[in-house]
Design a protein that fits this description.
- With 592 residues, the protein is an alpha+beta fold.
- It has 16 helices and 17 strands.
- It has a five-stranded mixed beta sheet. A five-stranded antiparallel beta sheet has the order 7-6-10-9-8.
- α11 runs antiparallel to α12 and α13 packs parallel to α14.
- The longest helix is centred in the N-terminal third of the chain and has 66 residues.
- The two termini are 93 Å apart.
- About 3% of the residues have low confidence.
- It is found in: Cell membrane.
- It is a multi-pass membrane protein.
- It holds the Pfam family His_kinase.
Length: 592
Amino acid sequence: MYTRIITFMNNLKLRTKLFLSFGSVVLIPVLIVGVFLTSELRNMAMNNALKQITANVDRVKKRTSEMLNVPVDIVYRLSNDSRLEEAANHRYESVYDVVQAYWDYPDFRDFVRLYKEVSSIRLYIDNPTVLNNWEFLQADEAVTREPWYQLALAQKGLAFWSYIPDSRNGQYYLSLIRKVDFLKQRTTGVLVVNVNSDQLSSILKQETFETFIVDENDNVVASNRAGTLGKSLQEINLKPLSTLAGHGPADITIEGQSFKMLIDDWHPEGSLNSLRIISIFSVESIVSEPNRIISLATSVIISSLFLAIILIYYFSRLLTGRMLHLSKHISKVASGNLEARLVIDGKDEIGQLARQFNHMVRNVNDLMSEVQESNQQKNAILLKQNEIKFKMMASQINPHFLFNALESIRMKAHTRGQTDIAQVVRLLGKMMRKNLEVGGGRITLQSELETVNCYLVIQKFRYNDRLAYELYVDPAANTVRIPPLIIQPLVENCVIHGLENRMDGGMVRVDIRVEEALLKVQVSDNGTGISPARLAELRQMLDNNDDYETHSIGMRNIHLRLKLTYGPEYGLVLASQSGYGTQISFAIPFKE
C-alpha cells in the first residue's frame, strides 16, 4: 500500500504536488483556527460588554444614592425644625409680618444654595394668613386632589419619591415628598424637595451605554439619551421593559432588534417606594466590530488562497523554466559561443550549478583572451614610456639655473647703478620661486599678499605712471590660511584689463576685510568695464563644469578651487559697468 502511494505521488506533476501539500498543510488548519478564533472573539466581546453594563449600573446606583441622600437629610432636618413650625403656623396680621417672617427663616434658600443636588424646596400648608412665595404655598383644592399629595397625607411621616411638576414653572422634577406633623400647633404640611435634574443627568452622561432612571410609573426621571427626559418608556419605544422585574442581564427584542439589558430595582434609603435603573445596549453594536474583523479575516483568507494558487503555479513554472534555460545555455556554449552568460538567481542546487557552469566558461574565455591582453599591455607600456620621455624633455630647464641667471642680471644692474632694474629682477625671482614652491596645502594671507605686492611692483616698473594701486588689509586677517594663488591672478586680470584702452592709466585696488565671520576680498579697477553680454558670458563660463580652454581660465580655476575647498555656495562674484570699471570679489569662512 505504501509503495503504491509513493509510486502515485512520483507520477504526479510537480504543480499538482504543490497544490496537495498546500491544501493539507495550510488550508485545513487555517480554516479550523479561523472558526475557533471567530467564535471566541464574539464571546469575549459580549462578555466584556456584560461586565461593563453591570459595572455601569453599580456605579450609577452608588453615585445616585449619594445624591439622593442629600434631600433625605434635608427633609429629616426640616421635619424637626421648630422654627419652621412657627413660621408655617403663625397667624399673621399684615403683609409686612409675613414678609418679615420669610426673611427671618432663610433655611430653604440656604439649603438650595449650599447643596447643588437640590434645585428647590417648598412647603404646602393650610394657613390663610401666609403669602405664596414659592417656598410657603397654600394647599388649595387643585393641589389637594393630586395623587402625590393625598399619598403624602396617608403616610405616617414616611417619605417617597415621585416625578411631579413644580408649581412655579410647570417643569417636572424627581421630588422627595413627606408629610410634616407640627405637634405643637396640631397641624400638618407637605414638604417637597426637588432634585436637580441637570446634576442627576450628568451622572448618566458619563456612562457609555444607554442608561435610564425610571420611577414606579415608568417615567424617565434621568437619562443619557437626548430627548427622553420626562417621557414614559412607551413614548421612547421601551414599553417591553415596563413589564420586566429587576434582575440581571437578559435578552430582549425591541422593534425587531436584539438588545442586552440590565434592570436594577433600587429602594433608596429612607424612601417608601423604589426607583429602577435600566441600562441597555444593542447586540449589533457590540458584535459589529467582531463581525467586521471576521469579514476582513474572511476576505484576507480568500485573497490568500487565491494568491497561494497563483504563487504555486508561478513557482512550478519557475522551477521547470530554470532547468530549460540551463539546457539551452549549455547548447549555446557547445556551439562555440563563449561570450554567453547564464543568469539564474538563487542559492539552490540549480543556481549553484549555473554559477559553476559560468565559472568554467569564464575560465576558458580568459585563457583565450590572455594573449590579446598581453599585447595591449605592451602597447600601453610603450605609450607611457613615450609620455614620460616627453615630460622629461619639457622639464629639462633647471629652475636653479633660471634663478642664478636672474640673480646675475640683478647684480649687473645693481653694480651699474640700475637699482630699479635690480629691484624688479629680485622681485621677479622671488615671485617665480614662490609659484614653484606652491603645493596642495594652504598658505597665510600675508604670504599671498607678498606675491601680489611683487607682481604690482613689477607692473608698476613696466607701466610707470599709467598704473596706480592701493592695498587695504584688515590686520586681523594676516594670520588666515588660504589656498595659494587665489588673489594674485585676480590682480593680474585687473591690471591687464584695467589698463587696456586707457592711455591715461588706471587704478587697481585690493580690499581685504573681516566681517560677520567671513574673510571678504575685493579686487577692483577703474577700467573700461565689461559689457552686459560679455559679463553674462563670463558668469556662465565660471559655473560651466566642462573643461575647455579659455582666456579666462585663471578666474575659472580660482572659482572652482573656492567651491571645492569651502563648498558650492562659495566662489567668485563678478560686477561691472561699462565705463566705470570691474570688481571681482569672494568671501570665505574666517578661521585663524
